[in-house]
Amino acid sequence: MFERFTEAARTVVKAAVERAERAGAGSVTEEHLLLALLDLEGTPSAAALDRLGVAARRDQVVAALAEAARRAGLTRADAEALAGLGIDVAEIVSRVEAVHGTGALRGDRRVRRRLGGGGRLTTEAKGVLERSLRVALGRGDRYIGDEHLLLALAARPGPVADVLAEQGATYGALERALAKGAEGGEPGEGAVA
């Protein structure tokens, strides 16, 4: 599958691995992929995120991802559903952190080993890569670009898609922003051999 990735898409995966290593994370997550996408410039995904104002609100995205990680990856909808059952997720997080330290539920405790060899992706991150292929094929593209990775993140239910949606970057909004870029004559990136 990686042979279909454009240079920008490969850069995203490599940067996600590097982010995970710097953070001491045991594996590469969807969050690492999104943060790597936010670092890109001059690509279709960067242009779409800029059009939607997400790039300008990068700090809010990072804070929202950190908050979702603090909730052990529960989405806001999950937390609200649990609240309906009388379970206060914020209270549980606070109690766990009081005993075990801030970020105890994140699951990203410092790991001394390096990810090396391309890094280990979580099941969710692997799912994003697989979905990016389906997104590309559904759009009639013969390559997998950074824009397909972004759309795959927005399409996959979970905290990352929630954070994107909170910023106005739903799957539909991203598709429209990408289409505007294509109509505007911005150069897209073709397949890398």
TrEMBL record:
Protein keywords: Repeat
PROSITE patterns associated with the record: CLP_R
InterPro entries: Clp_N_dom_sf, Clp_R_N
Keyword Repeat among record annotations: yes
Domain Clp R: 2-185
Signal peptide residues on this chain, from the entry's feature table: none
Protein's name according to its UniProt entry: Peptidase
Organism, scientific name: Streptomyces lichenis
